[in-house]
Structures are given as C-alpha cells and as structure tokens.
Amino acid sequence: MTVTWDDGDRPFSEAFQDHFFSEADGRAECGHVFIDANRLGERWRAGGPFRIGELGFGTGLNFCETLRQWKALRRPDGHLGFTSFELFPMTKADIDRALSHWPEIAAERQALVAQWPAHPAGVITIEPDAQTRLTVICGDALEALTALPDRFDAWYLDGFAPSRNPDMWSESLIRAVFDHTAARGTFGTYAAAGFVRRNLLKAGFTVERRPGFAGKREMLAGCRPSER
Q1: Which percentage of the chain shows pLDDT scores above 90?
Q2: Where are the alpha helices (DSSP H) in 80-219?
Q3: Which candidate in 37, 141, 157, 181 could, as Cys together with 189 as Cys, close a disulfide (CB 3.0–4.6 Å)?
Q4: How big is the CA angle at 216 (ends 214 and 220), to the nearest 5 degrees?
Q5: Which residues have CB under 8 Å from 77's CB, separation 6+?
C-alpha cells in the first residue's frame, strides 16, 4: 500500500483515500474511542489475562497508546494479548515516522519498531515485555479471524472509514467478530454509519451511541450479552 504524507506530516492511504488517524489528536482519540469505551482501566485492575482484538493495525498507534496505559495500570499477574488484523502492513520507517508525532509514546514506539520486520508479512509476533504480546496477522481479516479459535475480551473496530473501506464493516466480518468475542466482551468504534450499527445489532451485540471524539457527533460502543 502506498503511503503519502500531508502538510502536517500525517500519513495518508492512497488505496483507501483516507488518513490513518484523526487530525485533532489520534492518540487522544484512541483513549476516548477504544480504551475508555471498553472500560479497560477498571478491567485491567482486576488482574489476570486480557485479550484485545483489533481490525486495522495501521501505524500501530492504538497498540502503543494501549501499551502505555496498560503498563501504568496492570497488576503483577496481568497479561495482555493484543491481536490485530492488517491487510497492508506499513514499513518500519513509516511506522516510526508516523508515531514520532507523540513523545508520550516514545518508549512504546521504540519497542514496536525495534521488533518490526523489514518485510512485514504472515504472522508478526512482538513481545515488548514479559506481560505483553502483540500479534499482527497480515492478510484478509475475515479469513484470518474465521480460522482463529481465540475469543477476545474487547475489540477495537478501527478500519478506514466505512464509506472508503466497506469490507472492513461488512455483515460477515462483524458476525465473525461477535463469534470471537467472550461473553460480556465489549467493542468501541469511531464509526457511526447506519449500516455499521445495523450489522452490529444483527450479529448480536448490544449497541449504544456515545459522543464522538473532538466534535464528532457520535461513535458506537457495546457488548456481547452473556447469553444469546
């Protein structure tokens, strides 16, 4: 995938004609849309293993901000497994350039870039510390997710805009996300398009509208009920 850079040195996907993160502040948006909407702080404080699934790894910004907050809140018995699905993995240089915007995640960026392969493909596994494992599965998200036995406690639904990348928000993929969500597992997404909400409801999630980030009117969050 060809990545170009706008005047603010923000990465832009030529394939999807969309930026990789919010112009306002992508790191703060991750906190609002994914970490807060999934109530991760209070859940991490309970200790034990925790699994996050993500559609769209992109620059790795969500992972780095999650890792930063995870390190501050985790208990000694905690372990975070973060699995992301990415069709077009970025190069090490582009990831490093994109994440250099935020000095707050400098340590996490360096840990990611240090282990990121020169030619990313297949399944990438990175362990920034003994309590954290990142797995990036390069390829079609629906095919890869369907093949996994894993169930996740929280989801970051972060593909490019539904109007630009409808496959990442399709009924079949959202259903696969539901099938790979633990009971009472949650999701957060910046997307609020009507067909995205309908697909989430049809899959079986409870869905609520919440205020979006930086003036965006709405976002969606919800959970998988304990029984269906």
Answers
A1: 80
A2: 92-99, 106-115, 141-147, 171-179, 194-203
A3: 157
A4: 115
A5: 47, 48
Tokens of 192: 């609020």
Domain positions in the chain:
25-223
- Find out whether 56 and 159 touch, Cβ atoms under 8 Å: yes
Q: Do 10 and 19 meet the contact criterion of CB atoms below 8 Å apart? A: yes
Mean residue pLDDT of the chain comes to 91
Give the total residue count for the chain.
228
34-74, pLDDT tens digit by residue? 999 999 999 999 999 999 999 999 999 999 999 999 999 99
What is the distance between the alpha carbons of residues 59 and 210, in angstroms, rounded to a whole number? Answer: 25
CB 39 within 8 A of CB 155: no
CATH of domain 25-223: 3.40.50.150
Token pair, residue 193, equals 């398009």
E strand residue ranges, 3-75:
3-5, 11-13, 18-19, 49-55
User: Up-side HSE of residue 122: CA atoms within 13 Å toward CB?
Assistant: 7
User: How confident is the model over 169-202, as pLDDT tens digits?
Assistant: 999 999 999 999 999 999 999 999 999 999 999 9
- If we measure between CA atoms, which residue out of 38, 61, 62, 58 comes closest to residue 50? 38
